[in-house]
Amino acid sequence: MHLQMSSRRTSVVLALSLGLLAGAAGAQTTTNVQLILDASGSMLGKLPDGQTRIASAKSTLTQFLTGLKADPSLNVGMRIYGAGLKAGAQCEDSVLVTPMKGFDKAALQKQVNDAKPKGATPIVYSLMQAAADFPKDSSRKVIVLVTDGEESCGGKLNDAVATFKKLGIEVDLRIIGIDLNDKARKSFEGVGTFENTRSGAELGEALGRATATAQTGKYAISGPKSAGAGSQIEVKWTGPNNPGDYVTIVKKGAPIGNYKDYFYTKAGNPGKLIVPLDPGEYELRYSSEKANPNPTLATAPITLTPPTYGLSAPKSAGAGSQIEVKWTGPNNPGDYVTVVEKGAPVGKYTTYFYTKAGSPGKLIVPLAAGEYELRYSSEKANPNPTLASIPLTLIAPKYGLSAPASAKPGSSIQVKWTGPNNPGDYVTVVAKGAPVGEYKDYFYTRNGNPGTLKMPTQPGSYEIRYSSEKASPNPTLSSVAIEVR
Known about the structure:
485 residues; alpha/beta; elongated; disordered N terminus
């Protein structure tokens, strides 16, 4: 059995009429299609466009049936669940109202018109019943399930998959969601080709796209005609969703088999691509790993336009301080702002923030005074390119400490400090000559001036140190001696 999965937002219903069945005419292999319509009570709810879910489904199926032409090799049937056609058996309320024998447009349309939402959502039971509806032969078998919710009768979709396998039936299962929530969408992961729609228009587009491939294996791809370089785009595709099928973006005219960022079609429809950083003319390609080089099965052109980058920040700041940086840029996934020494190699970074955190962003600059650069960079390429930069001078702040020359063991003393009060600055007491970074009792400078330190209980020679968590080991920026006796 061939049950594929693809979960994204767009439509799958009208695609079935345009391609799946459009290709049935003249085909030598018989195609059997079963439409399964959700007529559960929740279908009376409204979509964001104001149309009820059942009205949207009926309208779309009507368009589907209207555009479908009779053909000797095409059989179309319909199963409806949740409409109360089996009184007192909600979780078995699933009926094949039109068998898959020829294409009786009038009978199918009447069933669509007469469907009245009432009951539960026995999806698994319906699929298991559908398995028995198909002839056990080599004909092309397609199920198109239109639903607005997840299974409500405790069934497990894997059981339906097992039923098809047991019967030796290979089915192209296409699930069209109507405004499903996250939980419902996840319930269909790994089963069939799935798309979620939120309006009648999306529902119509989806049916058209899905059906274009079900019978004929046609390929198509669509995305924006232009996009900012480095941005993330959505790409819709039509194809059989075979193992190893993928969508990528390459330079216009690139050799067959080339690829950049990509997604496998099994990840859903539409899929998302992060396009290259370099502006220019490109192609979106539907390809397959089935052959070497990977063949191009469908293409669509796309122009990548250069985005505008910019940075604004103080010209100078105290070393180790926190500064605000305003930025201008496309805010692509992986874009970030960092601070580095002037002339540092491309791709180097120290502290940083991602642009997705907002503008302005905050940076804690290095402790060492000197000439630096603020850079707008991207993780899109390796090494991470510098897309904009401005200079920054870090000024050495003044540090100082004032405390008693001696104190009693275990006593508390007041310590005055002079310093930039940068994030992570603190004052501590350690044994004289202790390694850099060691600390005992301490207080953060942000807690006030003076601060309180508790002296060690053992008499001896000690140091009070102004330090910072900005570097490791925490550097000693100022110190004074104190005797504990």
